Hints:
This protein is of the alpha/beta class. It has one domain. The protein is built from 5 helices and 6 strands, in the order E-H-E-H-E-H-H-E-H-E-E. Helix 1 links the parallel strand 1 and strand 2 (about 35-40). The protein is globular.
Amino acid sequence: MLGFFGSSSSGYWTTTTLAETIIDPLAEELGDFPVRMLFPMEGTTGMHLQIWAEKHKVQCSPIEADWVRMGARARALRDAKVLKESNILVFFLGNRSDYYEKMAIREVKKSAATKKRIFVIPSNTKTIEEWTA
């Protein structure tokens, strides 16, 4: 299961650029693409991931954060669900917050025990790279 986190510069990404820059290189690295993707429902990146997944017959599960009921905890609860269910993690690292960068670092430190693979897309390069312990 492939889990996505973070947000990105919505002006840059389209379904095509997302496929060419992130999804295709990731599929090549993995050798085969996972049968299911999890990602936040909010934002345009999630919308482009969903369009790509539906077009390529990959099961997708957009996860919605319940901001009204949960308030500030909504993001953490949504992200915890994606972390729990995914064995391949992809983080869009933003330039406004280091929240997802810190999460990626924590997951890299745990990756030897969890066997999860962690990939990041830094906002300055917009290319995918794998982080390992």
